[in-house]
Amino acid sequence: MADTAMSDAGSSEVAAGPDGAGRPPGTAREATRTAVWRLRSRGCWADAAALLAKAHGPAAALERTALLVERCLYTGRGWAEAEDGLRQAEALAGTDEERGAAACERGHLAYASTVLGVRDRADEARSALGRAAALLTPAAPGRALLDYRRGLISEHISDSPQAARAAYRRAHAGATAREDVLLLSSTWRHLAGLALREGELAEARHGFAQSLRLREELGFLVGTAPALASLAQTEPEPEASRLLAEARRLFGLLGGVPTWLADQLADQLAPAPEPL
After folding, report:
1. Is the peptide bond before 238 cis (omega within 30 degrees of 0)?
2. pTM of the full predicted structure?
3. Is 31 helix (H, G, I), strand (E, B) or coil?
4. Quick count: other Cβ atoms within 10 Å of Cβ 240?
């Protein structure tokens, strides 16, 4: 599974504590979001989703769904729960923006199933993200995340790196404008992955380093091992081995999550693509 295929599932605006650039929470709701973020960042998606289980309304249902979909992508488990959560979010959606956000999550779940080899749902992924694009205006909060996920489809299902790059760049610009640091860490990584694919080593190293820096600053522990492993692909020895050793340490600390990183860490000479 390609290392760049899984680089990141979502945005810091969905089920996160430090929102955007990491502004400190100041309300009871923000305190809950901070708790959710801390659990999510350590790979405790079920516990994070449980904090949202008693909340009502489409926003809470969507946040819970995003957590459950991300768990599928990182662990390859929990598909039925994610589907149930998604159906609830779709049923509660009452505006175009809410329906578009739910469609974006459906597309991402179908993408995860496809790239992880669970079931080929590529057509469903494309259709759902196309529906989201029709529902979300260019200024909608979820538009940058949608562009990012359309880039994933282009790169890892359609094998169209040029279309992927254009989508990642739109997502990067949108994430920058909204100060969505977690999404920026992902757009940096995927643009770097495309650069590496084309032999642009210096550009790839810069992008991977930026991604790692942002994830470390956010404390996104579950996404740090993949970022370390990606940067190791562009560094000479002994730095490459040091980065991989740290990635293995974090991978073990988190109980072998993300599961698709195992092969790359087992054999540093055969880097595996990351499907996030």
Report:
1. yes
2. 0.91
3. helix
4. 16
